[in-house]
């Protein structure tokens, strides 16, 4: 009778110990397009480095090939590489290869869809400067997605959109995708004074996003992730150099260990989705190949 009573109590939520507890109520992912790990030691980024020191990080996360945008943003959100999700090029809008599986929205499963299925009432958002992002996030799974105005004319627009959304909606999962420093990398070049000036500017924006979470009263229940799709070399990317392929992954906040460098652990682009799935205690699809960076959690 005692066992029956315990079973009855556990059954309605399917949780008790069957489904683990979430690590944090909120995740804010900030992606800087074209931010190579090679730049980190020289970059004047106090807000980012504070997150690094208070949390966990690696500078050895590798992009998938080719080391360019759409294929890597897709991998970041889809928990798999191009061989499986099918997005293979810089500007992929639809898969060049048939996706191995499709979800109910006709797209390869994304972290946004996994969270939506698990938490139907969750507030989920994604905003971006580069329009290619909207093709790889599964827009039917998010409450809010929007492209910022021309960031060359309105460089602060995306940050203003982000801080407003955070304060008004306290999102459960929110991805903020900047198109820089990639644009500067293509213009002035990677590893140039202009490139480092842009990183310094982006760090200010990241500080404002963190402050917005504080103002919204959600900072202590939030995990922040700062990362990139790829790096670059000279005025381009897409090749097989470490300058193009190695990007930072910094994770800090609720239930994250402090001052941990895990460069000794192999991390790939698609491991980001799996790590977020662990935060929300989500079961990842069989088609995903990502591995959660479980060592970063308390």
TrEMBL record:
SUPFAM superfamilies: Alkaline phosphatase-like (SSF53649). Pfam families: Phosphodiest (PF01663). InterPro entries: Alkaline_phosphatase_core_sf, Phosphodiest/P_Trfase. Transmembrane segments: none annotated. One of its GO terms (molecular function) is hydrolase activity. PANTHER family: BIS(5'-ADENOSYL)-TRIPHOSPHATASE, ECTONUCLEOTIDE PYROPHOSPHATASE/PHOSPHODIESTERASE. This is Alkaline phosphodiesterase I.
